[in-house]
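To: structure desk
From: M.T.
Subject: fold request, one chain
Message: Could you run this one when you get a chance? Sequence is below, nothing fancy, just the single chain.
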Amino acid sequence: MVHEMVFKECIKNGYSRESAHRVWDIASHDLLYITPDLTHGFLNLKKFSRYKTNVINRELELVKRHAPKFLSAFQEPFNLIDLGSGDGTKATTLIKSLPKHVQLRYCPVDINRQFVDISSSVIHRLNSPSVSSIKPVVDKMQNLADIAGMLRNSKYQKNVSLLLGSTIASFEINDLLFELSKDMFRNDMMIIGNGIR
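Reply: Done. Structure tokens follow.
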């Protein structure tokens, strides 16, 4: 059943041309979450002790330790753009470690509606005084470069983008960072977790 769904998704997404050949991208993020079971399976990855210890816990510790240092510089509201938001665990850790004066709009971004809904709900239940609103974004990960500009408005002119977990490993790193940096303003920030081992 999954093979047939993957096949249909590849056909729906179309192909690119390389010389005289048609190429279908089977490494697309879309394919990881085409069933609810696959979505839950991805979220359950954090239950594996080795992955939790070596990846998730290390990244969470880095966020806890360093977030107050650089985010205290923000005296005005900003967008917290959670790229590949998953279940919102890492954004939750960051928000809990913020100085009380910091004000933000949480913007979970994922290709999967279920992840965006879960992370939005998790942040809403935090009931943090720092979170003034939530702006969920469901979009293909190929459009990441446009999202920062789309979210910027008169109240939220600065962006802090979270590129945590394994999101960066799913792209060609140089292309991704170049695309993301194109829409960054001078005082924007990007917090990157880069495959901690």
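Reply (cont.): The chain has a mean pLDDT of 83. Let me know if you need anything else for the meeting.
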